[in-house]
Amino acid sequence: MHDVRCGPGRPSPPRAGVRDADAPPRPAQSRSRAQDSGGTPRSPSTPTPTLRRPSTRPRRSSTASPRPPTRTRTPAWWSRPSRGADLPDDLAAFARDAVRDHHTLGDAEALVDRHGFRSRGWKAGRGKIGALAAVGASAAFDDWTYEYITYRERERWGTEREVDAESLFAAADWAYPAAWDTVDRGEGEPVCVPHTPGPILYGIRGDDPDVVREVADRVDAEPVSDAQLFVTNQGTDAHLRDARLGDVADGRGYRVEGVVATEPETRRGGHVFVELDAPADEGDATLDCAAFEPTKRFRDRVRALRPGDRLTVCGEVSRGTLKLEKFCVHSLTATERVTPTCPECGNRMESAGADQGYRCRDCGTTAPGKVTRPVRRDLAPGWYEVPPCARRHVAKPLVRGGFDAPTHPEG
Ligand SMILES: [Zn+2]
């Protein structure tokens, strides 16, 4: 099926970048796409955007362009000396806590009063919490990313979005890894296009403001009414704090070390659970970890864990269970203890009774106890992560780098 609105003779749609061509990007703390507000993985049950055949409208050749730069470029106006240094410490702390903890409206209003800020609220006024956090963020954090958001024409709001999948995947490939989480190659689906009825057409996230803008320019889609570049904390892991395994609490995100205590278990619905023990020097504590069904192929990594593996796990704790966003394998159990086999006939020996060791019923050979043998592992040391389709907006993709071990990025 060919969409006539994209066919030959269609007037050039207003491309992204009308309003922001010369203006600096607006800072936006915790700016999230509509479909993943609240930090939940994008729902797999919602309809996918309309994917059309490639249009005949001429597009730039992606092969003619050089690879985009991959280094992070922070504009001068966003540097801490110009924006963060003058901010009071308690405002920076408020911003940090807003990302990692919880605030009441009273917390925000007390801070406003203390510093004599002018403020205004609508309805319950809870927007003051996020607004204050956005102001303090430049002093609280130093890792920043970008999202270039395009907006739909008003009359199209609520209708299916028309985004050409082929051009989107080509643009995503061209920009990766300077722009990330544009598509999920493993699942073969776009992830930058929301499924909700809101005004956003798509949002391109990445480390380089020019690259995310260029990606948007390369995507063939319905007309864009407006576009904005946002500075964000998306993809930074700003929500995670280091903690001891026994100290975690519900509703917060952590980076904790532990030792796999149980064989991973797949439960009804395809959710995979594994229990961790605290490291030996932290005393007795256990923590259930889960990789839910929407995390797709990530669950195979969790299923590959074995008791004794030493890990760092990252995610938010809810009802006592850490919802895995990524984990690092520091060391793998290399051996397992098994019932010995008979050296004469090769059959598995049987228990000779409590504390009696093992014996072969046929040959009469005996062994004093279980034996150690190497175990084949389908997992390498390093960091593993959920795929882009299940990524929370604030979770840092491994491809961004800066991790303390080898990484196995999902793109
Ligand atoms: Zn035997």
Give a structural overview.
Helix 2 crosses helix 4 and helix 5 (165-175) runs antiparallel to helix 6 (209-218). The chain folds into 3 domains: 4-74 and 144-232, no CATH class; 240-334 and 376-408, OB fold (Dihydrolipoamide Acetyltransferase, E2P), CATH 2.40.50.1010; 341-370, no CATH class. A 5-stranded mixed β-sheet has the order 1-9-3-8-5, covered by helices on one side. The protein contains 7 helices and 23 strands. 38% of the residues are buried. It is an alpha+beta fold. The structure holds zinc ion.
Strand content: 25-35%
Q: Give the rounded overall mean pLDDT.
A: 84
Q: Structural class of the secondary elements?
A: alpha+beta
The total count of strands amounts to: 23
Q: How many distinct domains? A: 3
Query: Biggest sheet: strands side by side, in what order?
Result: 1-9-3-8-5
**Distance linking N and C termini:** 29 Å
User: Which small compounds were modeled alongside the protein?
Assistant: zinc ion
Assembly type:
single chain
Cα Rg: 26 Å
What is the chain-wise order of helices and strands?
Answer: EEHHHHEEHEEEEHEEEEEEHEEEEEEEEE
Stretches where pLDDT is under 50 for at least 5 consecutive residues are: 1-66, 68-72
Q: Please tally the helical runs, counting DSSP H or I stretches of 4 or more residues.
A: 7
Shape: globular
Which percent range fits the helix content? Answer: 10-25%
Major sheet summary line = 5 strands, mixed
